[in-house]
Amino acid sequence: MNILTYTSNEELSAYAADFILDLVRAKPDAVLGLATGETPIGVYEQLVDRHRKSQVSFRQVKVFNLDEYAGLSPGHEQSYQTYMRKHLFSGIDLPSEHAYIPCGIADDLSAAARDYDRLLEEAGPLDLQLLGIGHNGHIGFNEPGEELYAETHVVKLTDETRAANSRYFELLEEVPEYAVTMGLGPIMRARQVLLIVRGENKAAVLKKALYGPVTTQCPASLLQLHPRLTVLLDEGAAKEL
Ligand code: GLP
Known about the structure:
Elements: E1 2-6, H1 9-26, E2 31-34, H2 41-53, E3 62-65, E4 67-69, H3 80-87, E5 99-100, H4 109-123, E6 128-131, E7 153-156, H5 159-165, E8 178-181, H6 184-189, E9 193-197, H7 203-211, E10 229-234
Helix pairs in contact: 1-2
This protein binds 2-amino-2-deoxy-6-O-phosphono-alpha-D-glucopyranose.
């Protein structure tokens, strides 16, 4: 694994944006796995900026997002559809039919999850999976527990995750109890994984993820088994390494 530490979010995000742009330059029809949360916002900002200034086009790129809240319509302010439109899709020339996000409002969420896996399968292995990490070690919405799943699935969010994400909602009760998340399969099969972690409050979980036992109790620890993992950190997150 390759670990790089940066003094500012600007530098870290610039590195990640260049990483993605270089990949698209080399492979114009790249398949990208993308993440949400606070951490990648700077990366998307810089990607939009660099896209405008460069000749690099996303017209042939396909993107697959990790997850979506169950019960939030694509137009809901806190849906990950809205997040991606706001932070990335509206600023690049990615065709809307190339942007895949798990469906959180289907009558049969499990059937929709299987459809998502089929689309992922058809697109081939992800060329790059961008990841953040939850305070409890989750990746996507793969929460700690007795078992992890390879396929896209419906997950009950832990109290910890709902509390962490409640900052985006007016009330804790408004945070959905369930989500749909890509499983560990496509993440571990991705040709490269770029994990971004910021802030001292993630230092302990990051240490567990990178150097603790590989366990379903810390889903990010499985990344230790990935052959091409790059970890981008700020100084806060790197504190306990
Ligand atoms: C969210 C997302 C994850 C994200 C994580 C950390 O709930 N489902 O994909 O990596 O939690 O988010 P943040 O960057 O806001 O700390």
